Amino acid sequence: MKILGIELAPLHIPLERRLQTIGALHFTYSFLFFGFGMLFFFLYLFFFTNYYLIPLAYFVWYVYDSQVSHKGGRRSDWVRRWPLFRWSAAYFPLELIKTAELHPRKNYILGCHPHGVMCQSHFINFASEGTGFSEKFPGIKPYLTVLTGQFMFPIFRDYFLLSGSVEVSRESIDWVLTKEGCGNALAIMVGGASEALDAHPGSLTLKIKGRMGFIKRALMHGANLVPVFAFGENDLFEQVPNPEGSKVRRLQNFLTHLLGFSPALFHGRGIFNYSFGLLPFRKPVHTVIGAPINVDKVEKPSVEQIEDLHKQYCEALVALFESHKLKYGLAESDHLKLV
User: Fold this and answer.
1) Which residues are registered as beta bridge partners of 293?
2) Which residues face 267 on adjacent strands?
3) How far apart are CA 201 and CA 192, in angstroms?
4) What predicted TM-score, i.e. pTM, was given to this entire model?
5) Contact in structure between 6 and 19 (CB atoms under 8 Å)
6) C-alpha distances in Å from residue 89, one per residue of 15, 224, 245, 274
7) Is the peptide bond before 93 cis (omega within 30 degrees of 0)?
8) What is the DSSP letter of 11?
9) Exposure of 331 by Cβ count < 10 A (0-12 exposed, 13-18 middle, 19+ buried)?
10) Residue 288 DSSP SS3
């Protein structure tokens, strides 16, 4: 039924569908509001109530514990296996496709593409067991790498750490690849926050040509590179038109450089309607994990070695996309645009 052009959700839907919506709601609203909500709540307690000792005590804990986000994190397998994440994966649904083995005696850097508006599939795949990563890749421990700022919000940081997420900093990557033994897989959003601004339905633009940092770290530690492509990630939200050169895009680029995250102007569906809200649309996402590229350790890689491996990685990524695109709803004429 539609009212004023808004398609309303039916009142009577199966319990399974309601649980799936709760799972998607948990991720989306945690991502958007949990961190800032706890920050403002603690500021309120400190400045406007007699409970100022609570945020003060937490600040002491935060200072003491601030290093953990770039020293391997604090994962909880129990939290990662919560039904919430299985419900969230079933909401779209999400599928994790394995094309080759990852051996526990090696370490890996997974290059995840595209970023999407909120990295919905990448979070569920690598920061939870919603799609059964550990069953598909036994002996491999995934780490989702995210912006350092995600670990600056009170309480939210502690919750986020339980997912196995760590900072996407050089210090953090070096720690996991040297201090945590073998069988580790660092999932890195190669396109970064700025790529989220290109996350329009049907978009195949990837920001990768100038992204050499993950290549250098792979060489320095001898970590195999694995291209990962999520078919459908960019279809989960609608964005305000923001072509390169437009006033909207220039403002977004400025704020991205200033704030460290991209202020995408987007909408999805609502809880009780299918037309407008903050929940992602129910569209399938198929994440294909490609075959690893063997990387020999070079402690001080040259510019030429970095560029050669970067070229090899881009070729493997394009080949992965081309070999699966028809299976997941794209046309023969659809091709990646690497910028």
Assistant:
1) 225
2) 238
3) 18
4) 0.95
5) no
6) 16, 27, 36, 18
7) yes
8) S
9) exposed
10) strand
Q: What is the rounded CA–CA span in Å between residue 118 and residue 26?
A: 13
* C-alpha dihedral sign at 122, 123, 126, 130: negative
Q: Once rounded to an integer, what is the mean pLDDT over residues 296-312?
A: 97
Cα–Cα nearest to 223, from 91, 105, 334:
105
Structure tokens at 246: 């437009």
Distance CA 305, CA 317 (A): 18
Structure-token pair, residue 217: 């770290």
Angstrom distances, CA of residue 103 to CA of 108, 129, 312 = 9, 19, 21
User: Rounded CA gap, 137 and 105, in Å?
Assistant: 12
Contact 109, 188 (CB under 8 A): yes
Q: What are the start-end ranges of the H helices in the chain?
A: 15-29, 35-48, 53-65, 77-80, 83-91, 120-126, 133-136, 156-161, 170-179, 192-195, 213-221, 247-259, 303-324
Distances in Å between the alpha carbon of 172 and those of 47, 70, 145, 153, 214?
A: 34, 4, 9, 18, 12
Contact predicate 321/336, CB 8 Å = yes
User: What is the number of residues in the chain?
Assistant: 339
pLDDT in tens, 161-204: 999 999 999 999 999 999 999 999 999 999 998 899 999 999 99
For the segment 71-107, what is each residue's pLDDT rounded down to a tens digit? 999 999 999 999 999 999 999 999 999 999 999 999 9
Are 55 and 46 in contact, with CB atoms under 8 Å apart?
yes
CA distances from 176 to 36, 69, 102, 106, 157 (A): 28, 11, 17, 12, 19
Q: What is the CB neighbour count within 10 angstroms for residue 37?
A: 15
Hey, is 238 helix, strand or coil?
strand
CB 134 within 8 A of CB 143: no
